What does this fold into?
Amino acid sequence: MTNCQDLVPNLLDEIQEWMCTVNVQEGHITDVQIVLAEALNNVIEHGFEHENTGELEIKIEVSEVQIIAHICDNGLAFTPPDNSQTPLQVDDDLKTLPEGGFGWFLIKEVTSHFEFHRCANKNQLILFFD
It folds into this structure.
């Protein structure tokens, strides 16, 4: 798919429909959709200088014990942040919250783990759902 924010909702709907046909439980489908939405929007927003200038490839593998989603893009080199805590602290004023920083926390919380590689000028994000 080309890197266009407007395509993400339809893509997530198609993924949901396909996952239903291969008998993935609804809760797992929701987890995959939430994480893919965040990851894809991050790639589109931060990985390319201009919309529609890059390519994204998505592959999903489903087994009885695990779902693995692969996202590959030819965008700017990126390294996921090494933060294990949400930017939201108990006593934070909601009006002063940072805009970013929640997505990778969410990805880490919802997936069982993920891997990230940069190879042949492509970012490769592999998301594991157990």
